[in-house]
Amino acid sequence: MMGIVETNRWLMDNNNPIEICKQLAKEFPKMSPNHIYQMLLQHGMYRDPSQAKKDAEVLVSDDIWREMKVIYQRFQRLWQGPDIPIYIFPMNAGGLFNRVTDKKSGLAFRNHIFLFVRPDISLKELTAVFIHEYHHVCRIAAVKKHENDFTLLDRMVMEGLAEHAVMTYLGKDYLANWTDLYSDEQLQLFWKKYLKENIHLKRIERKHDQLLLGKSPYPKMLGYTAGYFLVRQKKDLTVKKTFAISSEDFKLKE
């Protein structure tokens, strides 16, 4: 069984991020340690090694790695999901002019997950970020479609379904901040104005990420928040159904 990697030991031995990323080379054989770090930085990995050491000490004393093992085993059994490695690292604390309010962030691939967490994270927040990222892994395994072939609609629905799983197990208090940025009326308008004609864009097309992430001139987190809106329109959606259901089933009816 794979499960939780002992990144706590890595952090205590040598938490220089490039040295850490050298240990991740097997997951990204075509990338240099520096490129791996730049990618992880974008998703919340720590910048300051001295602060990361302090944060890691708190996370170790709070037994976060053991807690995560229990969470992982529970959902892997419940969802009959893939057995994959989970890498936990301290989250970037942000500077004076870069305040980050979230206590967790994550990044999922077909065969592994990264979780970035603050030292004051609660057990339910830790569960929420894991549910979201592991749902991605289970859906990627179930849909039988190569990730390079995913469309904007696929990505939007994937994010929406992952938060639907968080809602199911933990309730609305643990949903991501982006789930309630806009009203349903605004989201219906955004669907017609920005998304409806672009849902088949692939990731290699520049506009895909602009719409998904809501980069200027589009509304912030547009694709994510619209994805959760689309998922909410479907009633009687059990978590078990959400792994293999077609993204096309979530398109808004005229």
UniProtKB/TrEMBL annotation:
Residues 64-249 form the DUF2268 domain. This is Uncharacterized protein YjaZ. It comes from Peribacillus huizhouensis. The lineage of its organism: Bacteria, Bacillati, Bacillota, Bacilli, Bacillales.
